[in-house]
Amino acid sequence: MNCTSLRTLVVTLTLFLGFSSGMVSPLHAQNPLAPDGLKVGDQAPDFTLKNVDGKLVGLRSFVDSKGVILVFTCNHCPYSVKYEDRIIELHNTFATKGFPVLAVNPNDTVIVPEDAFTKMQERASEKKFPFPYVIDETQIVAKKYGARRTPHVFVLLRTRTGWTVEYIGAIDDNPDDASKTESKFVEDAVNALLKNTKPETATTKAIGCTIKWKKG
């Protein structure tokens, strides 16, 4: 084996061992299509985004709440549409108990015109959303949190120093039929927090459409 072949073999083995041991590739770390984002237990960053009523809304808008059910969602995704009524139900069930819903549309509206702000206003009015529905125009919030799909949920708990992430993932285990769900992940997580305990299931895989990231 010549020197060039040997060096190639060493580099290949090094990369293989690095990835197999959990090393994150620099390309992956910088790729907005796969943001690293937050983990359960992390401090959740505050933000301010425009709501469909034109007002600015952020976590600081909920300082009197025990927590927030933060849902990255949108207009056009079939999964988001399937979950709309369940998201409304989550808000109606838990807002009075201290865990309101805050919905964020992270999609690039150039790629998906159906998710434009005016379309969000129409959808919110049509469905009578009882919660804020804000637009993440720069996609900074989605990237900071590590949202990948719509819908993608982050259950946040308010603490003395800010907000901690207590659950990340799907709303439940059956996007197609709410009546046939066996595990209601978000509901169970919030109920656990209301009892001052940690969610038994803290992370699940979000099922939905991939977020449409801005090009360039």
Topology overview:
Elements: H1 3-20, H2 26-30, E1 48-51, E2 56-58, E3 67-72, H3 78-94, E4 101-105, H4 117-127, E5 133-135, H5 140-145, E6 149-150, E7 152-159, E8 162-169, H6 185-194, E9 209-210
Parallel strand pairs: 3-4, 4-5
Antiparallel strand pairs: 1-2, 1-5, 3-7, 6-9, 7-8
Brief summary of the model shown:
This protein folds into two domains: 1-30, no CATH class; 32-210, Glutaredoxin, CATH 3.40.30.
Write a structural description.
With 216 residues, the chain is an alpha+beta fold. It folds into 2 domains: 1-30, no CATH class; 32-210, Glutaredoxin (3-Layer(aba) Sandwich), CATH 3.40.30. The protein is built from 6 helices and 9 strands, in the order ααβββαβαβαβββαβ. It has helices at 3-20, 26-30, 78-94, 117-127, 140-145, 185-194; strands spanning 48-51, 56-58, 67-72, 101-105, 133-135, 149-150, 152-159, 162-169, 209-210. Strands 2-1-5-4-3-7-8 form a 7-stranded mixed sheet, covered by helices on one side. A hairpin with a 4-residue loop joins strand 1 and strand 2 (56-58). It is globular, with a radius of gyration of 19 Å.
Key attributes of the depicted protein:
7-stranded mixed sheet; 216 residues; Glutaredoxin; 9 strands; globular; disordered N terminus; 2 domains; two-stranded antiparallel ribbon; 6 helices; alpha+beta; 19% strand
What is the string of helix and strand elements? HHEEEHEHEHEEEHE
Instruction: Give a count of the beta strands, DSSP E runs of length 2 or more.
Output: 9
What CATH architecture label of the largest domain applies?
A: 3-Layer(aba) Sandwich
Which ranges are low-confidence, i.e. pLDDT below 50, for 5 or more consecutive residues? 1-34
Secondary-structure-based class equals: alpha+beta
How large is the radius of gyration? 19 Å
User: Total number of helical segments?
Assistant: 6
Helical content stands at 25-40%
Shape: globular
CATH superfamily of the largest domain: Glutaredoxin
CATH fold naming of the largest domain: Glutaredoxin
Main pleated-sheet profile: 7 strands, mixed
Under CATH at level 1, the class of the largest domain stands as Alpha Beta
Give the termini distance in whole angstroms: 42 Å
Instruction: Trace the largest sheet across and list its strands.
Output: 2-1-5-4-3-7-8
Question: Any idea how many domains?
Answer: 2
